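ingest -> validate -> predict -> emit
validate: passed (alphabet ok, no gaps, 159 aa)
predict: started
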Amino acid sequence: LRLQPTFLQELTLPSFYTKFTQFNASIGPSVSVASNRENCQLNINFQYPAGLQFAPKAANFKGYAKIGSGVSATLKSTYYFSGSETQSSTQQDFTGPLSSDYYIKDQYPEYLTWSPCGATSVPLNVNTQVRLSSTDAAGTGYITATEMMIADLYWKKCA
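emit:
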């Protein structure tokens, strides 16, 4: 997996954008089981003003899925800060037959993962996976994630 990270200065900082060049999973009779799932662990070091906390509000994903009948694909992301026990996860499922580009805006659940108070720099960890499964032994397909952007953040003053 190779990344091409770009920090977008024109957006409300902090924000993060990356392109994935080889982030995909595939399934089929001649495809190894290990290829059914791909994982990417990003550790993004955000810097922010003292006295504030932030939480990721949403992340945008772009990619392509081509999956046959009986095949399912999943894009799942888990967000957490180093040293914190709180995590937020989102998941998007695709069911075949399907052949199309996708754009997903991951909306976080009602609980949020907040950065620690008293810090001005902290790694936000984003663990993202694409995976495929099939109810048909002859089922084929692949899913790829090509881009991710975290630009929407919630802010609050430390208590």
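The chain has no helices and ten strands.
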